[in-house]
Amino acid sequence: MKNVLILGATSDMAQAIAKKYAAEGWSLTLGALEADLLEPIASDLKVRSGTEVLTFKFDATDFSGHRKCYESLPVKPDAVIACFGYMSDQEKVRNDVEDIRQTIDINFTGMATILSVIAEDFEQRGRGAIAAISSVAGDRGRQSNYIYGSAKAGLSAFLGGLRNRLAEKGVHVMTVKPGFARTKMTENLELPAALTASPEQIAEAVFQGLEKKKNVIYILWMWRWIMLIIRCIPEFVFKKMKM
Amino acid sequence: MRKISDWGNYPVIEAEVNGFDTTEQLKRQLELPGDVIAFGNGRSYGDASLQDRVILTRRFNKFLSFDESTGELCCQAGVLLSEILDVFVPHGWFLPVTPGTKLITVGGAIAADVHGKNHHVDGSFGQHVLRMDIMRNDGSVISCSPTENAEFFNITVGGMGLSGIILNATFRLRKIETAYIKEETVRAANLEEIMDGFEMSEDWTYSVAWIDCLARGDAMGRSILMRGEHATTTDLVNQVHKNDPLTVKKGMHLGIPVNFPNFVLNPLSMKAFNFVYYNKTRPGKHEHVVDYNSFFYPLDAIADWNRIYGKRGFTQYQFVIPKAAGREGMRTILKRITDSGLGSFLAVLKLFGEQESFMSFPMAGYTLALDFPISVKAMSLFKELDAMVADYGGRLYLAKDSRMDAEMFEKTYPNADEFRQAIALLNEGGTRFASLQSKRIGITG
Predict the structure, then answer these.
(1) Residue B174, pLDDT above cutoff 80
(2) Are the CB atoms for B36 and B433 separated by under 8 Å?
(3) Contact: B17, A47; criterion CB under 8 Å
């Protein structure tokens, strides 16, 4: 039985992804900061699919502990999906040193350290798949959320480099850019329905993407084109736009 | 703040909406003052789950345990009936009771005490609930069952979410051999025939009729009676079904991408639709084996079908009248509806069995449900119908209602007063559970 390791497993996206993998017959290892929240999630997956589910505490910002944390897992995964992330309110984060650091620590540094540990193991074994949830916000810095966006831009660049390095070693790396998603982060917001993906859509796309060894996926096709257009706007025009 | 409405798209309001993953998070939300109401999957038709502040329950949707020897399932209240079917039908289990859509939450099924095509045999959903946990307005959790804290249990089943937030529930699933239904359809030329048909169908587990509510005169009440039984493996004839009796193919999924403009729905188009629907079934009896989705949830295959009614929204008028008043009462009411010409695409008729309810809708008698686009004319028709329904000793279904007045409610729900007092006692303290509906019909202030 193949095993998938899901990090940040309490998020709505991660829960949908876990359901998808469980339904496909994989066993699961779930890590999250609030490990007690994983209990009902694990029992749910067990009732649904009878699969084995293991849970553990994973702290994205305990950088130096990442190696030990990964090594202590009883089953080495065949695939890893890193779903953890942190988005604060831009107005609030803009001048708040702690919040700026938190945003970068979780979205970039934490991702880079844990995925580096895992990449090393996969490289030695000569197989494995890594997917991480980045964001369209990383495609271009915009005044409305450039702190979050820049951390995600760093993550996207990191994943690109990792993919480049591991391609020859039989290890696949996929970058996921969801666009708007209907999750608890956004439940009080009015989102354009046509541009908003459900956690289930994201789960399906992540699973299929890894099966087909896709490199960078946007969940809804429009986003690839929207972001292409946004990236093509010349800087002297862009800086005057309110985005 | 976000715009929110239920399935009828009427009314639409601005509300603060928040979900929860843990009982702790829910408790913190209940510590804030003001009125709140739970909102499941938005499939009630009117304003029963609307309020300035609503608590979304869909994220609280984990299966907690399942006992294969008894079929007892314990799950959090935000689980959809469709999720239960997806997981358990392949293992040979089915819901004890299901309404005409599977896109409702377990919590909603209990709060509205939903009924199904097997009501005359198995009663309503609440009668299958063995235990549940509910969070009260002070954040405390109360466990109840038909024997433990039975009073609390009774005001929660059919209590429209006014006693608290249902956290989880345990109920027993029904064993099935196949995912198919042996269905028999019978065409009935008028109301007399369809009522005879129902009374002769009492031995069938499932029975319901689609009725053409625009046909007049001798053809008034012409309809198609559908009765069904869970198919056994020996009932299956199709080799594909036989090979894998508990798996059904995922059907085609149609969607209504935008609201239809108002002119699409007119008496002529509705008449044409009803004509085609009635005449696609040939006279007499016909037997076939269909998968459970086609039998129970034909409309779920059309995503967002509520958009057919356009931006103005619609309401479903569903009433029940006691069996004693049945034939005459049904004829009089149906005649008033067909005379108005306002009726909808299809109406659903069903004969309920006996049920003792505290606040639940079903009673032994006939129930009819019709969709009406919202209009001034429809509203005044409803007023007339209300009076007729009340005179015959019947009542309206709260899960579908968005407009009845306090007087009608008071007249037709015999325990209204007792319920109001009980809810007032429970609501003491900071947060109150109240919906736009509960205020409109005078249960809460």
Answers:
(1) yes
(2) yes
(3) no
Residue B276 confidence (pLDDT): 73
Its ipTM equals 0.78
Reported pTM = 0.89
Q: Is residue B253 pLDDT above 70, yes or no?
A: no
Q: A163-175 pLDDT, tens per residue?
A: 999 999 999 999 9
Calculated CA dihedral for residues B292, B294, B299, B303, nearest 10 degrees: 80
| Interface residue ranges in chain B relative to chain A, Cβ cutoff 8 Å | 1-3, 16-19, 21-22, 56, 59, 61-66, 76, 87
Q: Name the one residue in this structure whose structure tokens are 């319920």.
A: B419
The Cα B168–Cα B148 span in angstroms is: 16
- Secondary structure element (H or E) that encloses residue B422, with its range: helix B416-426
User: Residue A108 and residue A101: Cα distance in Å, rounded?
Assistant: 10
Residue B55, helix vs strand vs coil = strand
| Smallest CA–CA distance from A43 into chain B, residue | B64
Radius of gyration in angstroms for the set of CA atoms belonging to chain B, rounded to a whole number: 21
**Residue A120 distance to chain B (closest CA, Å):** 35
Q: Which two tokens stand for residue B390?
A: 């009340």
Look at B76 and A41 and tell me if their CB atoms are within 8 Å.
Answer: no
**Local confidence band at B262 (pLDDT 50, 70, 90 cut-offs):** low
CA dihedral B194, B343, B118, B71 (to 10 degrees): 160
C-alpha A159/C-alpha A179 separation (Å) is 18
The per-residue pLDDT for B252 is 59
Q: In 3D, which of A79, A54, A55, A58 has the Cα closest to residue A67?
A: A58
Beta-carbon separation of A187 and B19 below 8 A: yes
Q: Kindly report whether the peptide bond that precedes residue B33 is cis, defined as omega within 30 degrees of 0.
A: no
Report how far residue B170's alpha carbon sits from residue B321's, in angstroms, rounded to the nearest whole number.
31
**Contact, A3 vs A78, CB < 8 A?**
yes
Do the beta carbons of residue A50 and residue A27 sit within 8 Å? no
Angstrom CA distances, B155 to A165, B143, B238, B435, stand at 63, 13, 47, 16
